[in-house]
Recover the amino acids of this structure.
């Protein structure tokens, strides 16, 4: 378990929603519906009167946090030696391109690819132009 919380690994702490904001309230509603064993289709349906972009953003961040947690539990078993290629089975190989350091699709070991991918996703989530965090205060009910 110590490896999961190593800050040099891909695992990152969960992104938090500021209490008192509309996104925080949406996050609580999403968590409640996902934890109650409800039909997934109903759980992700846009609540009446809520902004679709905010609802999608909440689910994207939650999904990222869950994937990070899952990857954090298995990353010690996938090293550059044991996973020299990022693949989706024998027929598919994923290559990294970011137009910064990697201008062309580049084959990388799976751990390196995953680190770059998680960094890239985190940059997108932390970009205020894509995922603004100050959407406003939640409505009083």
């Amino acid at each position: 378990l110590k490896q999961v919380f190593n800050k040099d690994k891909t695992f990152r702490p969960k992104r938090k929603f500021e209490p008192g904001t509309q996104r925080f309230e949406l996050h609580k509603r999403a968590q409640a519906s996902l934890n109650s064993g409800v039909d997934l289709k109903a759980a992700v349906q846009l609540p009446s009167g809520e902004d679709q972009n905010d609802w999608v953003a909440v689910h994207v961040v939650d999904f990222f946090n869950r994937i990070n947690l899952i990857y954090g539990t298995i990353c010690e078993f996938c090293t550059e030696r044991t996973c020299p290629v990022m693949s989706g089975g024998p027929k598919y190989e994923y290559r990294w391109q970011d137009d910064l350091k990697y201008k062309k699709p580049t084959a990388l070991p799976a751990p390196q690819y995953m680190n770059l991918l998680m960094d890239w996703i985190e940059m997108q989530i932390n970009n205020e132009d894509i995922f603004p965090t100050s959407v406003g205060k939640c409505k009083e009910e």
In short: Strands lie at 95-96, 106-107. Confidence is low (pLDDT under 50) at residues 1-7, 137-141.
